[in-house]
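PROTEIN DESIGN WORKSHEET
SECTION A - STRUCTURE
LENGTH: 403
TOKENS:
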């Protein structure tokens, strides 16, 4: 029986990212101590972590870099990584360098976390679970920290899972980690199948969906104005340019498109929208707190949620939309088809095709009201069956207790 979980995050509860951790943290059982270790600490106030402890690395010194690099180069893990690179024909000078940095980063992270835990009088033992929220160098660091005492688990999402999401086309040490961890939890069945196919570790890999809190079904009354919402970081792979191109060719459909989120491409996308779309038909709301997004859904009649990404794990933004009963149009990538069921609670389209998106928007806009409401009912039903945070995370933590 576990007594404590040590959760390693990128920055949560600091900063504005990793919002999908907020509902999970609220569902941690009362009889389990949760210690959160954020690897970064952006400026600003930490989000509510309920009764969880937070161990900051902000004032922890880094280990000697030269010594740590030597330890990385001469480690068994590094040579295993070389073996995996050769097996998948990805061995190169660049691959070698990035593998070294992966192992080096893991050792640095492990040393800093160890120092922070000791400062907080936490000693890892066999009753602990080290839980990396990402299957990256932090997950390998968790394995180092466990030191054959505690159990190690991690989740796997998208950028930390799919080979094609990396510049060299290879995720490091996947087979090594899967063989040694107690469990790996991809957030989609498609992701689990992908990882099993590449590691042959079916006994360790178990998909487990995330979930979002129930903020209630959105009231809806028919309107001639199509209110379209999207929500994501404004980066290349989210393909907001596809949404703009699709909207620019819509015929005889009055609409308003609102995008929540920001990112490195925001100004470029704003300029593109200004040049392609009529004034007053779009609005970039920027990044907003999660409760503010839900408040918008509760107080405004949203007709369609749109996601045009080239690649995904399973978008939490889509889970949030269907929780309010909003139909979804999304690209059929990653595990999206596990939440969007074609012609039931939304439509699936091929990625990179603005005409397909325009046709999908048009087809939903032209549905008879009874058929459209059927989409909304199915969206809400799908949420209640498979994406309710309180149900999913209660089951997840019960599984962890039984490891």
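SECTION B - SEQUENCE
RESIDUE ASSIGNMENT:
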């Amino acid at each position: 029986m576990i007594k404590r979980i040590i959760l390693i995050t990128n920055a949560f509860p600091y900063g504005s990212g990793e919002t999908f951790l907020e509902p999970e943290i609220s569902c941690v059982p009362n009889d389990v101590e949760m210690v959160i270790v954020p690897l970064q600490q952006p400026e600003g106030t930490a989000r509510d972590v309920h009764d969880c402890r937070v161990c900051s690395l902000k004032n922890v010194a880094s280990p000697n870099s030269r010594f740590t690099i030597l330890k990385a180069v001469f480690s068994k893990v590094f040579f295993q990584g070389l073996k995996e690179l050769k097996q998948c024909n990805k061995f190169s000078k660049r691959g070698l360098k990035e593998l070294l940095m992966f192992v080096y980063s893991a050792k640095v992270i492990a040393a800093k976390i160890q120092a922070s835990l000791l400062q907080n009088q936490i000693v890892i033992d066999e009753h602990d679970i080290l839980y990396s929220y990402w299957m990256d160098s932090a997950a390998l660091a968790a394995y180092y920290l466990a030191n054959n005492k505690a159990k190690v688990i991690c989740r796997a999402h998208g950028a930390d899972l799919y080979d094609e999401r990396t510049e060299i086309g290879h995720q490091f040490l996947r087979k090594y980690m899967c063989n040694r961890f107690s469990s790996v939890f991809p957030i989609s069945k498609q992701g689990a199948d992908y990882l099993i196919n590449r590691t042959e570790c079916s006994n360790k890999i178990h998909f487990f969906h995330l979930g979002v809190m129930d903020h209630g079904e959105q009231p809806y009354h028919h309107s001639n104005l199509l209110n379209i919402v999207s929500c994501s970081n404004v980066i290349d792979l989210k393909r907001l340019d596809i949404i703009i191109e699709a909207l620019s060719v819509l015929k005889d459909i009055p609409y308003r498109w609102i995008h929540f989120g920001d990112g490195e491409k925001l100004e470029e996308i704003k300029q593109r929208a200004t040049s392609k779309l009529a004034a007053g038909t779009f609005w970039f709301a920027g990044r907003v707190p999660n409760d503010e997004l839900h408040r918008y859904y509760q107080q405004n009649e949203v007709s369609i949620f749109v996601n045009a990404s080239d690649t995904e794990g399973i978008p939490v933004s889509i889970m949030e939309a269907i929780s309010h009963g909003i139909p979804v149009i999304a690209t059929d990538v990653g595990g999206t088809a596990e939440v969007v069921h074609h012609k039931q609670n939304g439509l699936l389209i091929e990625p990179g095709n603005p005409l397909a998106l325009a046709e999908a928007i048009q087809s939903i806009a032209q549905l008879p009201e009874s058929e459209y409401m059927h989409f909304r009912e199915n969206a809400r039903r799908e949420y209640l069956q498979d994406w309710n945070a309180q149900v999913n995370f209660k089951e997840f933590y019960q599984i962890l207790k039984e490891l």
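SECTION C - NOTES
Residues 345 and 379 are 5 Å apart (CA to CA).
The mean pLDDT is 94.
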